[in-house]
Amino acid sequence: MKKAHQIISQLSHLVDNMDECEGEDWVTKGSSRSFFWKNKGYNLIENYSESGEPSSLYVNISSFPLINESEIAYHDYELDVYCKYGGEVKVLDEDEFLKATNQYNYNSDFIKQCRESVNEATELINNWKYRGI
To answer: Which of 75, 102, 117, 124 could hold 41 in an S-S bridge, CB 3.0 to 4.6 Å?
Structure first.
């Protein structure tokens, strides 16, 4: 896999400029490291506990990111893949994806692309090695 762009968020770091927060701030409970690949329809977040131990992996199924020197932007496509450290991989928000499929009239190729990204993200999580904070 090609090199990923990374963002590291330390304990209790305020994350702002998030459109989906609807005016609410999001404060991390532990540390996290986010990975973005220019040619992948997802991004991955490594989450760590306050003591620095791995706690979970979270993958947003999304558009390819637009990356420049000061920001990373992407469209979230509702589907997520999650795995608590040492646990089983779970696909989340199927109901939200189904609702969006109808609301935004997603075509079959787009739905197939999102499902392929879920499969790829599941494989990524199953083979992931935490980088540490």
So the answer is: 117
